[in-house]
Amino acid sequence: MLFNSIEYIFFFLPIVVIFYFLLNNKGYHQAALIWLVVASFGFYSYWNPKYLILITGSISVNYFLGGLLQKKNQRFVLVLGLVFNLGILAYFKYANFIANNINVLLEHTDYFIDLPKIELPLAISFFTFLQIAYLVDCYQNKVKEANFLHYTLFVTYFPHLIAGPLVHHQELMPEFSKPENKRVNWVNVYTGLFVFSLGLFKKVYIADTFAEWARMGFDTNIPLGFFDAWGTSLSYTLQLYFDFSGYTDMAIGASMIFNIKLPINFNSPYKALDIQDFWRRWHMTLSRWLREYLYIPLGGNRHGSFFTGVNLFITFLLGGLWHGANWNFVIWGALHGAAVVFHRVWRTTGAKLPQLAAWVITFLFVNFAWIFFRAKTLDDSQRVLSGMIDIHALNISPSFATAFNYFIEWPMAQLPAIGTTPLLPVTTLLFLCVFFPLCLFAPNSFELSEKMKTSTPTLASCLRIAMLAGIPLYAMLFMSSRISEFIYFNF
C-alpha cells in the first residue's frame, strides 16, 4: 500500500487512527497496540502476503537473540545475530549480483552459476538495519525489552516500516507509553495533516513530474545533447529530493497524528556548503546508523588520519552497496567516500572557499554522483555524462523533443511552449526555476511544523490546512492513473 494511494489516505489511515484512539480512550492500551501491529502487518502484506513469513521469522529470531544479549551479554550471540541478519540480506539482495559477476569472470570456462531470479522482499534493508541496531544496543546495555508485542510494534510500525526514518528502540517505544500520547492531540493532528499533505504535494506534483523527464533521459537510450543531459540529471536530482523528502514528510506526519514523534530525516540538504554538511542533512537517520554501527566499530578516528580516511571510505562504499546490488551504486558510494576523505584533508590545510563557490562545488558534485545512483547501467551513466560535458552539442535532440510531445498526462501541456507543442527545455526550465529555489531558500517541513506547534489552532488556520491538504488530494485523484512507488521502496 502506497502512502500516496487512495486506499491509504481515505481508508487505511483514518480507520487505524480512529480505532487506535477509541481503544486507548476505553483504557485498552494493550489492545490498541495489538491493533497497530495487526494494521502494520496488513499494510506490509498488501504488496505480497508471502513475505509476512520472512518478516515475522526475522522479528522472532531477533527478539530471542536480543533477550539472550540482555541476560548474558555474550559477543557470540551478537555475532550470531549479525550473521543471521546479514545472511538473509545477502541472499535476497546480493545473491544474483554475486553470481552474475562470478559468471562474467568464468565466461571462458565450463563453469556457470545458475540461480533463479530472487525477488527482493519489500523493506528488507530497512527492517534488517533496524534490528541489527537493536541487537547492538542490547549488547551495549542500552535497551531492555521483555515484551514481544512491543518489539514487534517497534519493527513493524507502519509509518516508518518501508523506508524509514531508521529509529532507535529507545527513542520510539517510550512514546507509546506516555499517558498524554494515548489521547487525541488536536495540535498534533493539525500539524501532522499539514506535514503529510506537504509530503503528498512533493510526491504527486513535483517528484512524479520530474520523474518523466528523468526517465526519458536515462531509460530511452536516446543520444543526449548538452541541454538534454543537464535537464535529465537536474530533473533526477530534484525528483529524488522531493520523492524521498516527500515520503519522509508523509511518514512523520502520519505518525504525528498518533502522537508519536519520528526523527527528522531531511534538513534542506541542497543548502549544504560541503560534502560532510550534505550528509548531516540528507537521509540523516541512515547517516547516523552508518556512523554508529559501521564507522565507529571499524575504528572511527581512533587510529590516526590515514585509518580514519580508510574507515570513512569503507563506510560510504558499503553504504552505496546497501542501496542496491549494482556496480553503479558501488561507484556512487565510492565517489562520496572519496569526497568526504578529500574534504577532511582539505580542512587540515585551513583553506576556505567563499560560500557561493563552496555551494556550487558541493551541489555539482552531488548532482554528478546522482547520475550513477539513477542509471541502470554504466553505459547509461556514460551517455548522460558525455552529453553534460559536450559543450559543442548545445542543441536539443529532435528525438528527445519528439518523445516529450507524448507527455500529456499532466496539465503541464498548457504551459507556454515553443510552437504549438510543449518542448522539454521550456517546461523543464520552468519547473527548475520554480522548485529548485524552494530547496535553497524556503523553510523545510521540520521548520514549518515546529512553527505551527507553537501556535494555537484556530478555525481559520484549520480551514487553511484543509485547503492545503485538498490540493494534493485533488491532484492525486486527477492523476491516479500514474500513482507511482517511492524511489526508496526499491532499496
Proportion of residues in β-strands: under 5%
What series of H and E elements makes up the topology?
HHHHHHHHHHHHHHHHHHHH
Helix content: 55-70%
Q: Helices and strands: which structural class?
A: mainly alpha
As residue ranges, the low-confidence spans are 403-423
For the residues shown, what is the average pLDDT?
A: 85
Summed up, the helix count is 20
Q: What is the global morphology? A: globular
Number of domains: 2
- What's the story with the biggest beta sheet? none
The total beta strand count reads 0
* Rg, nearest Å: 24 Å
N- and C-termini, Cα separation: 16 Å
Can you offer a commentary on this structure?
70% of the residues lie in helices and 0% in strands. The chain is mainly alpha-helical and 491 residues long. The longest helix is centred in the middle third of the chain and has 34 residues, at 186-219. The chain folds into two domains: 6-187, no CATH class; 197-490, no CATH class. The two termini are 16 Å apart.
